[in-house]
Amino acid sequence: MDKKRPKHLDLSKIKLPLPALVSILHRISGVLLFLAFPLLLLMLQYSLRSIETYTQLVGLLHHPFSKLVLLGLLWASLHHLCAGIRYLTIDLDWGVKLAQARASSKWVLFVSLALTALIGVWLW
Q1: What is the spatial distance between Cα 89 and Cα 105, in angstroms, rounded to a whole number?
Q2: Do the domain assignments include residue 72?
Q3: CB neighbours (10 Å) of residue 106?
Q4: How far, in Å, are 40, 70, 73, 80, 82 from residue 30 at the CA level?
Q5: How many domains does the chain have?
Q6: In terms of residue numbers, what domain contains 45?
Q7: For the whole model, what pTM was predicted?
Q8: How close are the terminal C-alpha atoms of the chain, in Å?
Q9: Angle at CA of residue 22, ends 97 and 92, nearest 5°
Q10: Arithmetic mean of pLDDT, 8-29
Q11: How far apart are the C-alpha atoms of 108 and 114, rounded to whole Å?
């Protein structure tokens, strides 16, 4: 057993395949949505409480940083949706082969980014 095995893995040098990257982004987007849920509920509460809190919320949401945060949450929800549909189709044994999995990963990234850009331009 004179195989030279690495004593430690340098994760920055490992190139992940695209389906693995989509899987990691799916998990990250799920965590972002979970953590942002109380903030979104608070925004809903402020929008419904009174006209004063609604105008304060609208003023806050006109700030570019707030728009950027909401754009990130929009991407997270759209990516999570698209990747979730991809995983449901894989569970149904559609697109399980390697070429199909790579193609569906590309589509997930493209569709989620394109929808984010379109809705972001429309909302900005």
Answers
A1: 12
A2: yes
A3: 13
A4: 15, 15, 10, 6, 12
A5: 1
A6: 18-123
A7: 0.86
A8: 61
A9: 40
A10: 89
A11: 10
Burial class of 86 by CB neighbour count within 10 A (0 to 12, 13 to 18, 19+): buried
The answer to whether the CB of 79 falls within 8 A of the CB of 25 is yes
In a domain, 3, yes or no: no
Q: Decide which of 124 and 83 is more confident.
A: 83
Angle CA 21–26–32, to nearest 5 = 125
For the domain that residue 96 is a member of, what is the CATH number?
A: 1.20.1300.10
Query: Considering only CA atoms, which of 74, 55, 60 is closest in space to residue 123?
Result: 74
What are the start-end ranges of the H helices in the chain? 18-49, 51-61, 64-91, 98-123
Length of the chain: 124
**pLDDT of 51-80, one tens digit each?**
999 999 999 999 999 999 999 999 999 999
Asked whether residue 111 is domain-assigned, the answer is yes
pLDDT at 1: 58
Considering the domain boundaries, does residue 6 fall inside one? no
Q: What is the rounded average pLDDT of the residues 8-13?
A: 76
